[in-house]
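Severity: low
Component: inverse-folding endpoint
Summary: output formatting inconsistent between runs
Steps to reproduce: submit the following structure tokens with default settings.
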């Protein structure tokens, strides 16, 4: 990490901890140079970076000051309280109706699940892919069958090691995206009619996969900042025959919540006690905004009960559909499921991404991506504060690229979705994130696209439509 990034991150940490508060003046460039032993250009670059993140502001002839945190005047939603009992799923048609309506590129994609592909090094990846295709060893079409390319799995094991987890390449199964990984895990662990636990709200793709496999779900309350409730989960495990848990612990979709490291450890210990496996959907873990990455649940798993699912779709290569499962004790069964469904993941893509991880500057790309997403979050928050009416609650994430908003109780976000779509704006209405179609006055907005005048106009449109329902 460069000196200016390190200095910026340390300053951001002091702001997050409340050591530096809104309105406090930062050290002048000269003072910072003397105090920290760094150059004027290092301080200036760091302050510009913090300014782009929305954390500080320059005042003419006065210096830099900590900015009142965008979104801070909007209260946070409370812990969810889903209706009790298990649910037989009938959500796919409902979700597809919503998703089909936001595929039009003319629509402002605030409801999209995808970031802007222009944030990613697609040209560079294309060169790695072309080289892999040109020099493809014919034997690789056999040797790279499940569990996948040896070098790619070695590179993934090295990244786990960097995050404090000792994961053998032998337990990693390469998949065609995280969605296939989730399906393979569910197929390996459950049979039709079985019960799994999901957080509430939860990502709709997990509900779709569970419905396809004939599973029932029990929804566990979650907090918009700290994620799934351990007390509620412990109670559910005592009273229900739960076969597996499907959770997002880092920057969950849709809430953006991150389970604190101590809670992760307690969660893994709780599941060890009941011998219930955890399928962790962790596709957003690399998109953290603070100075340190969140701890990896695999580092806390001593019994191989965590099946850690991730992909490159959100952090490096959208559209490549390449993911993996670090499946612990279930690796062989997940591998068998892969053989019996899609057989293999595209071999040139596996080779290309293995080479990119070795030589492509992945961590440098991630630093740029995180800074850009943090900047876009601040810009979207500014638009919400400007255009939305009073009475809004906001979950403020420190990673990922989603904002979860609670609107006043009388607002119907399914109706809001239809009205906004008619004016060229998409949103993700709350009911698609619930097996019981709860969260009727909630919505998810995407800040994975650079702010534009068009986006600001879309937020103004949403604000007018919300006011009309009040």
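Observed output (run 2 of 3):
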């Amino acid at each position: 990490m460069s000196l200016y990034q390190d200095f910026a991150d340390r300053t951001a940490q002091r702001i997050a901890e409340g050591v530096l508060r809104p309105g406090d003046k930062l050290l002048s460039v000269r003072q910072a140079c003397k105090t920290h032993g760094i150059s004027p250009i290092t301080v200036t670059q760091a302050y510009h970076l913090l300014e782009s993140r929305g954390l500080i502001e320059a005042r003419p002839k006065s210096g830099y000051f900590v900015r009142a945190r965008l979104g801070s005047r909007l209260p946070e939603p409370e812990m969810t309280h889903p209706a009790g009992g298990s649910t037989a799923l009938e959500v796919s048609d409902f979700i597809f109706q919503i998703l089909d309506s936001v595929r039009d590129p003319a629509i402002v994609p605030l409801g999209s699940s995808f970031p802007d592909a222009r944030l990613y090094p697609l040209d560079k990846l294309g060169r790695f892919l072309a080289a892999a295709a040109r020099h493809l060893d014919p034997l690789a079409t056999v040797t790279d069958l499940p569990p996948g390319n040896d070098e790619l799995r070695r590179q993934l094991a090295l990244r786990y090691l960097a995050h404090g987890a000792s994961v053998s390449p032998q337990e990693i199964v390469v998949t065609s995206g995280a969605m296939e990984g989730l399906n393979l895990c569910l197929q390996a662990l459950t049979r039709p009619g079985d019960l799994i636990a999901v957080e509430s709200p939860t990502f709709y793709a997990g509900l779709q996969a569970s419905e396809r496999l004939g599973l029932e779900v029990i929804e566990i309350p979650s907090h918009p900042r700290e994620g799934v409730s351990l007390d509620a989960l412990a109670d559910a495990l005592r009273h229900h025959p739960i076969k597996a848990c499907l959770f997002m612990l880092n920057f969950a979709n849709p809430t953006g919540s991150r389970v604190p490291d101590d809670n992760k450890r307690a969660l893994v210990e709780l599941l060890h006690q009941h011998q219930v496996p955890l399928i962790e959907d962790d596709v957003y873990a690399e998109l953290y905004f603070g100075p340190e990455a969140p701890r990896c649940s695999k580092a806390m798993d001593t019994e191989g009960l965590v099946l850690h699912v991730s992909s490159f779709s959100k952090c490096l290569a959208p559209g490549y559909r390449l993911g993996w499962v670090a499946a612990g004790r279930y690796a062989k069964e997940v591998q068998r499921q892969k053989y019996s469904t899609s057989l293999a993941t595209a071999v040139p893509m596996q080779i290309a991404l293995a080479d990119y991880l070795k030589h492509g500057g992945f961590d440098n790309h991630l630093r740029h991506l995180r800074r850009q997403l943090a900047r876009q979050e601040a810009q979207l928050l500014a638009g919400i504060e400007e255009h939305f009416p009073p009475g809004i609650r906001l979950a403020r994430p420190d990673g990922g690229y989603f904002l979860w908003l609670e609107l006043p109780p009388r607002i119907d976000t399914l109706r809001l979705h239809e009205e906004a779509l008619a004016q060229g704006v998409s949103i993700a209405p709350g009911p698609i994130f619930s097996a019981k179609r709860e969260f009727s006055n909630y919505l998810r907005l995407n800040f994975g696209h650079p702010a534009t005048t068009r986006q600001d106009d879309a937020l103004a449109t949403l604000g007018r439509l919300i006011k009309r329902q009040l």
